[in-house]
Request: fold
Amino acid sequence: MEDDYDILIPKLVPYFFEKGGPVIGIQVENEYDGYGKDASYLAFLGDAMRDRGIAGVLFTSDGSDMLKNASLPDVLATVNFGSRPEEGFEKLEQFQPNSPAMCIEYWSHHWDGEHHTRGGEDAAGVLDEMFKAGGSINFYMFHGGSVSSADTPKFQIWIYQKYPKCIG
Reply:
């Protein structure tokens, strides 16, 4: 992994906010509590990013019930969900007080054996609840799913109600 970081991270650094670019943060790990509980591993990943020049916000993303073993004290914790934003943000606030209420993966659909979709009104209603709760959002895999090909582009959209106080 370190060899990969030695190649990849120097290519990313110029695009970070601190260098005048559009990138404000980088995810250390995703849903780590679902398969691991090794804080030294998470610290290693964060240190490896910092040692190679990442100066932006480091963050993790986990379900609101998975925060305990999935983050580090100096790394921004974020949550992911598709419903009940007040509950998710409340658990995030309990875990990491005074941090931005950020849903880094807002699921407009999910896979659980079969592909579950939702109507636009339902998704918009949850989005409205999220904004009323003071949250910010990243539309996770807005188009294309998690496998990219020539005919299934993927991108992510971040919408902030207010600029997180951890930036700048």
The mean pLDDT is 79.
